[in-house]
Amino acid sequence: MAIEGSYQHLLTDLFAFLATAVAGAIILGTGFTRADPLASLVVVVLMLRSAYGLLRESGRVLLEAAPAGTDVEAIGLALAADPRVNSVHDLHVWEIGTDFPALSAHILVRQGDDCHAVRRDLERLLGDRFDLQHTTLQVEHVSSAHQPIELGEAVARRTPVER
């Protein structure tokens, strides 16, 4: 985004110089003095156009919105389509920076399936099909994820770790 901002700044400066030169030539050639303010308005429009694009993109990053053109529903359906997956929830897709999308999700798999293998396969699917390389998948078995734990009981049952 910083490189795009620098590029837009240089491009706007170039058009400002060209507009000023054209306006100067028109004023010298015809005496039409309003060419200078008209040239300034053209430059202002170019500046607003470039600023809008940069603000839109930086806003997406700051608001942690899904990257433009990313179909989050299609990603969720692709994850859920794996026969070992029971459910997908808490699916979040956002941009950490320009062109750096990230994903996190909670995946429940059938009891007895290898959670690590499912995670690896789903990460490969996300990378190959959706170009998502930065993923955090929390994969658990269905039964272990649905067992409520009373915090007081869990602390009371805890035993010291043997070394």
* β-strand amount: 15-25%
* CATH fold descriptor of the largest domain: Alpha-Beta Plaits
Cα shape: rod-shaped
What strand order characterises the main sheet? Answer: 1-2-3
Q: Total helix count?
A: 6
CATH structural architecture of the largest domain: 2-Layer Sandwich
Fraction in helix: 55-70%
> Could you tell me the mean pLDDT?
86
Low-confidence stretches: 148-163
Q: What is the CATH H-level superfamily of the largest domain?
A: Cation efflux protein, cytoplasmic domain
Query: Helices and strands: which structural class?
Result: alpha+beta
Which value, in Å, is the CA radius of gyration?
A: 27 Å
Helices and strands, in N-to-C order? HHHEEHEHH
| Biggest sheet record | 3 strands, mixed
What is the domain total for the residues? Answer: 2
Let me know the number of strands: 3
Q: Output the CATH class name of the largest domain.
A: Alpha Beta
Query: Roughly how many Å apart are the termini?
Result: 50 Å
Q: How is this structure best described in words?
A:
The protein has 6 helices and 3 strands; from the N terminus they run αααββαβαα. With 163 residues, it is of the alpha+beta class. The protein has 2 domains: 2-62; 72-145, Cation efflux protein, cytoplasmic domain (Alpha-Beta Plaits). Helix 1 runs antiparallel to helix 2 (35-62). The longest helix has 29 residues, at 2-30. It is rod-shaped. It starts with a helix and ends in a 6-residue tail after the last helix. Mean pLDDT is 86; it is low at 148-163.
